[in-house]
Input
Amino acid sequence: MLSFISKKSNSIASNTRNFLRHSTSSQALKPTEEVNSSNNKPKDGRKSYAEFRHIYPEFLPDPKIEFRNSIREKLERSDMIARRTLIDIPEFYVGTIMAVTVSDKHTPGKPLRFVGICIKREGCGLRSTFILRNVVDHQGVEVMYELYDPTIQKIEVLRLEKRLDDELLYLRDSLSEFSTFDSNMEAEILAEGTPVPVNPIKVQLKPRPWLERWERKNLKGVEKIDLPEKFFKRAAELAKPYEKYDLMKQYMGTIPEEEQNEIFAEIQSQLHKLEVTRKKMKRKRTFVKPTKLA
Amino acid sequence: MLMNSGILNGSRSVSNGLKYFHTSSCCREIQKMTKLRVVDNSEIGKRAMAEGKPPKCIHVYNKTGIGKIGDKVLVAIKGEKKKGILVGLKQNQKTKVPKFDSNNLVLIDESGTPVGTRIHVPIPTILRTILKEKTQSKGADYTKILAIASKFV
Output
C-alpha cells in the first residue's frame, strides 16, 4: 500500500494529466468502471467483481457517509446470503418482466402472484426494494416489494431485459399498452453467457398533465414529446450538463472500487455456490424429457 | 384570455372558457373536494362517469380527514349525497399493498350493501382485513363489497 502511494506521488504530474483528460472526454467518467485490472480478476472463470456490481447492486452499502456502519453492513450481507440460500433471487434489472409470488396474510393459504415490469429498483442491504407495474383490467396497478421479504415465496424472471433508462416511472404517464403484460406469460429462457438484451422500445406519453415534468428528465425511452417550445427552453435552462464532470459528487455518490472489491471478495465464494445450484436447476428446467412416439 | 392563461399557468389548460383548479392531484390525498372514480356498475355511478362529472368527496369518516384505503367517504354525485368505500388509491402505499393509477370508489348504501353488482377493477386483498375490522356486529356490514369484486391483487 505504501509503495503504491509513493509511486503515485512520483507520477503525480502525469496522473493529473490523465485525470483531466478523462474528465473532459465525452463519456461520463465513473471511478468504479475500470475494475478489470489483472489483480482483481477472480480465478477459475468466475464472474469478475465488475459484473457483480450490476447483478447484485444491493450488496453495496449506501455511500452516504452518515449511514455507514461496517459491522451492520457485514451482518446484513450475511443475512442476505442466508436468505438467498433459501429462495432463488434471480438477476434482474429495471425493465425486466417479473412475477412475484407472496404468501398473503389477508388470504390465508392462497399465495398471490403478481406479474409486471420492474420500473424502479432502489435501496441497499436488507431494505432494497423494487416496484412492479402492470395494467390489469384497464387499471394501472403498481406493487412495491422488498427483495429480502420473508413472505416472498418465489421470484421469477419472465423476460430478462434492460431498457434505455435507469427508471421507468414515466410508464405511469404513458399509454397503457406499454405497461400491459399478460399474467399467464411464460418465462423466456436466455442462452447461457449471452449479454442482457436492451429493449430499445420508445414509449408514447399521454398528453399533459403529468406526474412529473418528463421533458426535463432527458429520457431516452420516450418518443418525441409534443409540447410548445417554451417547455424545452426552460428544460435547457435548468439542465446541468456539467454535472458529469463533478468528480467529487461522483466520488461521494459511489462506493470506491477498492471497497467494492473487498465486499465482493468476502461474499464471492457463497455467491458462486448459489450460481452453480441455479445453473443446475436451469438445466433441469430446459431439459425436456423425450416422449415415446408411436 | 391573456389574464386567464397567466393565472392558470400551473393548473390545467383553459378549455372553452371553463377553468378548474386541481388542488388534490399533486398531494394525491383523499380529502374534501377530491374527485374520485366510481368502479362498480351502479346506474348512478356509471352515468356520472360517462357524463364526465365524477363524484367529489365531501366528507371522510375518520378523525384525520384524510381518506386512506378502506375508509368510508361521503360523495356528491349527480346532485345527490351518497356514501362509498375507497378501494384503491393513487397515493404511495406500504410494501405489498398495490397502488393504483386512479382513486377508486365503490358506492354503498346505509347498511353497507353495495349499490352495484360488480366491480370491474382489481381490489387489494388488504381490504379483506380492513373491512372486516370496520364491520361491527350491529352496524353496517362492509364485507359485502368483497363478494362483488372480480379480481384481487
About this structure: Chain B has five helices and six strands.
